[in-house]
Amino acid sequence: MPRLVDADKLMQMIPTEEYNARMAITYAPTVDAVPVVRCKDCKWFHIHKTAIWCEKEEGLNHPQYDRFCSFGEMREGDN
Fold this sequence. Notes:
alpha+beta
C-alpha cells in the first residue's frame, strides 16, 4: 500500500555522495493528497447522550468517529 513520506526530510537523511538515491527521490512522482477532517474532529458532528448526528445532510446516514466527508471542517480551537 502506498504511503506518504516527507521527501525533504528523507533527502536530509541520505548522504550527499549517494547520487542515485537522491536523484530517485528528486524525480519520484508525487501524490495529489488533501487533508481530511474526521467526523470526531468536525464542527458539524455532535454527540448528545445516545444521539449522534451530523448537521450536513450527507453525514446523516452514517456519522462515525473515524469517517469523513467533503464537508468536514475543524472545530474552533482544534488544530
